[in-house]
Specification:
Blueprint lengths: L13 H14 L3 H6 L13 H4 L9 H33 L8 H31 L10 H9 L3 H21 L9 H31 L2 H36 L6 H24 L2 H10 L2 H15 L1
Helix pairs in contact: 1-5, 1-8, 4-5, 4-6, 4-7, 4-9, 5-8, 7-8, 7-9, 7-10, 9-10, 9-12
The chain binds fe (ii) ion (FE2) (2 copies).
């Protein structure tokens, strides 16, 4: 008897998974051979572009201090992806369970994504070590990946897939709209997110497929509870952003070129928090590909609940 590659499950489109595998194999890269290539970061250049870091709003900072703040934010940006990819990899392997004894092409696509996310975590650990070598001591990345992942993975799969889809779509938008087009950004920094973007382009498509498949399984009551889970997850992300933006502002005050006034410190803290909310929440929520998918799954009343929860963050 021949093992079947396909399944009669109408929610599994084997050809789409096969296409993802084909692209994933074609663009697959290696951390050292393709991305780092023996290079170091150029600390004379910015890391995170102004469109994401918002450092250009702080006109009282010198150009050198604005650059330092973009590097601190860029270091956190890499660490944040190392953090979220801990739970994303685990969730991909978790949802692959539905395909274990079913469509083997779908299973392969999910295993590949899990494997790529494990590689990305290693890339971001390398980035953190390279940043630590080139920057003054005292930086702290506060959230702990396994603690965050345990809390996230306790929520419903629908909510985790919604958050994951949102993250992987804003990865693409950030590279396309800001990182890839900014001439002032460190070349190595840009390459890290170019290569990351290449593999994430497939992940975003897979997220859409798996989230939609999960949605089709839910009763209205289960989906309503999942909307509450999603709201809780966004609140938890915002809690992390508040803590890490405060830590990064504190570190900047310690290592920048001159003492800052109390008013300047307040403006700095507010700007870094606003930048982090823009990077990790607001920029993703505004992507039509995400909002259209979400709104197609939920009722208007559920949409209003989400909008109300987001209001303080979007303001
Ligand atoms: Fe990734
Ligand atoms: Fe990913």
């Amino acid at each position: 008897m021949q093992a079947s590659q396909s399944t009669s499950n109408p929610h599994v489109d084997s050809a789409r998974y096969a296409k993802l595998i084909e692209v994933s194999k074609r663009i697959r890269w290696d951390i050292d051979r393709d991305v780092i290539r023996g290079r170091q970061f150029d600390f004379a250049k910015r890391f995170l572009p102004d469109g994401l870091s918002k450092v250009d709003r702080l006109q009282f900072l010198t150009a050198n201090d604005q650059r330092l703040l973009s590097q601190i934010q860029g270091r956190t940006y890499a660490n944040m992806f190392g953090l979220v990819e801990r739970f994303i990899a685990a969730k991909m392997l978790d949802v692959s369970r539905d395909h274990w004894l079913g469509d083997q092409t779908a299973l392969e696509a999910l295993v590949r994504v899990g494997d790529e996310e494990i590689k990305h975590q290693e890339l971001f650990r390398r980035i953190e070590r390279m940043c630590a070598e080139g920057m003054p001591g005292g930086y702290t990345f506060v959230p702990e990946p396994n603690a965050v992942a345990s809390a996230v993975l306790a929520k419903s799969t629908w909510a985790v897939m919604a958050l994951t889809c949102h993250i992987e779509l804003f990865v693409l938008a950030h590279y396309r709209e800001s990182i890839g087009t900014d001439a002032d950004v460190s070349e190595l920094w840009k390459d890290v997110f170019l290569y990351h973007w290449k593999e994430e382009s497939q992940h975003a498509i897979l997220d859409e497929m798996e989230w939609t498949r999960e949605d089709a399984k839910l009763t209205p009551e289960a989906r309503d509870a999942a909307v509450d889970d999603l709201i809780a997850l966004v609140g938890a992300v915002d809690g992390i952003l508040q803590v890490q933006s405060a830590a990064d502002a504190h570190y900047f005050v310690e290592v920048c070129s001159r003492p800052m006034t109390a008013a300047e410190v307040e403006a700095l803290k507010a700007t870094v928090l606003a930048a982090y909310r823009w990077q990790y929440i607001v920029s993703g929520v505004q992507i039509p590909r995400f909002s259209n998918l979400l709104n197609g799954m939920i009722t208007p009343a559920q949409g209003e609940r989400i909008v109300a929860a987001l209001a303080p963050i979007m303001a």
